[in-house]
From TrEMBL:
InterPro entries hit by this protein: GH, GH_1_N_CS, Glyco_hydro_1, Glyco_hydro_1_beta-glucosidase
Name listed for the protein in its UniProt record: Beta-glucosidase
Reactions catalysed, as given in the entry: Hydrolysis of terminal, non-reducing beta-D-glucosyl residues with release of beta-D-glucose
PROSITE patterns linked to this entry: GLYCOSYL_HYDROL_F1_2 (PS00653)
Natural source organism: Undibacterium danionis
Length: 462
């Protein structure tokens, strides 16, 4: 892959901010994020068990294009090529997730050595290429055998998670030092069990809050265990967080925004930083509040080494008096720039969100563990993919990250979502987030314009 000077690329578009790698510290983590279910494929290979997402994909109407992730990007077999691309991009870090169903294939079973061996080869491949491994233990692919016993709604699933996490961190901890316990508990709990958009597809608010509590509790219990297993471990959690707007200046909209903030953001941040669940939200959901044991909130607040923030877009809230108080409505304003997924493009929202975390919560290192955009990319006749809007998205959001650092936010790394197009959950293969175009028939990888820019930016002055 050839690269050019990134400054010349940026400056050839005067409306874009000038940006250089030297604007960030030399030890800044530059990487991409991926997840096991979305890219690996090999759904039945080497003893892998069924996950809740495998089962969800079998249900008619759950995946928009009727697809599944049985093959996905075939990363399970093509991982050397994918890591080569990450290295060529100039990245020094690589975030991946481990598939629980590959590691423990049935209830009470011993660990599946073939599954562990795959991740061992993958981690070795990262290190050989100068990529620091960042492992996510749970990125939504719960084993189906646990779901059939009640899933995350059942407290015993915490014990199963800890057994899994113990096995993985013991096996990989000699090489992997950065660990994320969970990715986006909001999606696990709310999309999976409240609105039913994600696996397991339940629509029960009380169950969703219980799931959320058990996920956060499993996180708190895992932190000291990981540190015991892994010398010099750095442990955190990755949250999906949103800056919020109101559709108007009406007091009703402001009150609705406050409630939405309580459930969307504070419901996770507050207990993780020792404040317990927000009292204003508990008042609204008294009948649905999670069952907790004495000491649970202290466990959830176990100190972490960093906070992962996944930022994509702000949310605009409008009061909906016809709905229960916590069932707020998102307003779609017509005058906003949007991706082809209809997500608002708002780089300053990233800065705003990060500054808020700095101001409202105890000081903690932050990593942008996901940030990216979906556009309807096309492979041109000459074999190129011109995704100028995604390239511009990265430039503008990295500039916002630079501004946040200038305002005192301790941001230490940025992971783009994602290295390559993949199975995008309920959207199937309709959404492309990658810097690498995947032909899902041939599995051919093609670096997009955004990937060429990222490579030029990261390889600058090397």
């Amino acid at each position: 892959m050839t690269t050019t000077n990134s400054t010349s690329i940026v400056n050839s578009f005067p409306s874009l901010p000038a940006l250089a790698r030297d604007d960030f510290p030399t030890n800044f983590a530059w990487g991409c994020s991926t997840s096991s279910f979305q890219i690996e494929g090999a759904a039945t290979a080497d003893g892998r068990a069924e996950s809740i997402w495998d089962r969800f994909c079998q249900q008619p109407g759950k995946i928009r294009d009727g697809s599944n992730a049985l093959v996905a990007c075939d990363h399970y077999h093509r991982w050397p090529e994918d890591l080569d691309i990450a290295k060529q991009f100039g990245m020094n870090a690589y975030r991946f997730s481990i598939a629980w169903p590959r590691v423990i294939s049935e209830l009470g079973a011993k660990t599946n050595q073939r599954g562990l061996d795959f991740y061992s080869r993958l981690v070795d491949g990262m290190l050989e290429r100068g990529l620091q491994p960042w492992a996510t233990l749970y990125h939504w692919d719960l084993p189906q055998y646990l779901q059939e016993l009640g899933g995350w709604e059942r407290r015993a699933t915490i014990d199963a998670y800890l057994e899994y996490a113990d096995a993985v961190t013991r096996h990989l901890g000699d090489r992997v030092k950065n660990w994320i316990t969970h990715n986006e508990p909001w999606c696990t709990a709310m999309h999976g069990n409240w609105d039913g958009m994600h696996a397991p597809g339940q629509q029960n608010f009380k169950a969703a809050l219980q799931v959320c509590h058990h996920v956060l509790l499993s996180h708190g219990l895992a932190v000291p265990m990981i540190k015991s297993n892994v010398a010099q471990a750095q442990v955190g959690i990755a949250l999906s967080l949103h800056p919020l707007r109101t559709a108007s200046d009406k007091s009703e909209d402001r009150a609705a925004m406050q409630r939405h903030d309580g459930l969307r953001n504070r419901w996770f941040l507050d207990p993780l930083f020792g404040r317990g669940y927000p009292t204003d939200i508990l008042e609204h959901c008294a009948a649905d509040a999670p069952v907790m044991a004495s000491g649970d909130l202290d466990v959830i607040a176990t100190p972490i080494d960093f906070l992962g923030v996944n930022y994509y877009f702000p949310e605009t809230i409008v009061d909906a008096p016809e709905l229960p108080p916590l069932h707020t409505k998102l307003a779609i304003l017509p005058d906003r720039e949007r991706t082809d997924f209809a997500w608002e493009v708002a780089p300053d929202g990233m800065r705003e969100l990060l500054v808020r975390i700095k101001n409202d919560y105890p000081k903690i290192p932050i990593f942008l563990t996901e940030n990216g955009s979906s556009y309807d990319d096309k492979l041109e006749a000459d074999g190129s993919v011109s995704d100028t809007r995604r390239r511009n998205y990265f430039i503008r959001h990295l500039d916002a990250l630079k501004q946040a650092r200038a305002e005192g936010v301790d941001v230490r790394g940025y992971f783009a979502w994602s290295l390559m197009d993949n199975f995008e959950w309920a959207e199937g293969y309709l959404r492309r987030f990658g810097m690498v175009y995947i032909d899902f028939v041939t599995q051919k990888r093609t670096v997009k314009e955004s990937g060429r820019w990222f490579s030029a930016f990261l390889n600058q002055n090397k």
